[in-house]
Amino acid sequence: MILALLLCLAAQDTVPAGYGSLRRDDVVMRLSTGTVEVQVLPLDEQVIRLLAPDTYRSITQLELSRADDIRDAAARGGTEHPTLIMVTFLGVVPQARFNPEDLTVTSRGRLFRPIGIVPLSPTWSSFQLDARQQAVAIYLFDPGISVREQLTVSYQGLSTEAWSRSIRLLDQERARVKARAQSEAKPDSGGL
Asked: Residue 11, class by beta-carbon neighbours within 10 Å (0-12 exposed, 13-18 middle, 19+ buried)?
């Protein structure tokens, strides 16, 4: 089911995979509480297809490897087509505590709270990190979050609207990817 959903979403995006050049750090949104840094990356095909090919492949393989967990969490959350966002909590100081449920996303004037969380790190369930230690999970949200418009990510009273910068980068990269794909698809004009 999740594989079919991923393929359906991929078919909806006119940008071909494998031509992107952005790094994950180019588009990730960050917040820092002083004890933890929170990194947020929407896993929408319109975003991840613009990342470098190896990053795109690793994210896609990660999603596929956790497809059953994502499907189960989506069913518990009451949706078949969740919005997926990768969230990383990074410890800045020793014994840094984090609360995964405190993260929210605002899109199109609507507040979204996670409807499910699929942990990817063994450190996730401790809710505590050492300095430079990270805990990663895929968050599931109800459909309706638009990565082509401004997003606000909030955590424990802090907010970031850094997605507006990411939108500009993604739009520029989308144009470059289309140009790369078109130039590669043009038939050789040499004669026989």
From this structure: exposed
